[in-house]
Design brief:
20% strand, three-stranded mixed sheet, 6 strands, 6 helices, CBS-domain
Length: 142
Amino acid sequence: MLVYELMNPAVVSVATTDTAVTASRLLARHNIGAVPVTGDGGGLRGILTDRDIVTRCIAAELDPADTLCGEIMTRSVVTVTADDDIREAARKMSAARVRRTPVTRGGHLVGMLSLGDMARHPNYDMEASRALSEISSNIRRL
């Protein structure tokens, strides 16, 4: 099975020039934990997670109304292509310790893939479980 068969094609994204408040409202409205960040021409520039907003904006005592997504986003984005095999995508996500990743086709953002998307499919729930286990086991214990 290929990534495009499981990904969510309804991508919610923000621009580098949108504020952290705008991104936060989108995350809450759509009940999601991350949004791709696009630049001029719609190219993928980064990803912004709810954790990025908390650690790089709120904890840094920056004003979310004045802080741009491009300033606090994660720049090193792990991506998969729509035509990648879903098992390879799971391995890539596990290696990078990410639970969700943007999906591209021809360099353009076409969807998002999460471990949850894989877990809901009976043929790939073990790949999702294995990836989540590997991600979780690499988290430092406090």
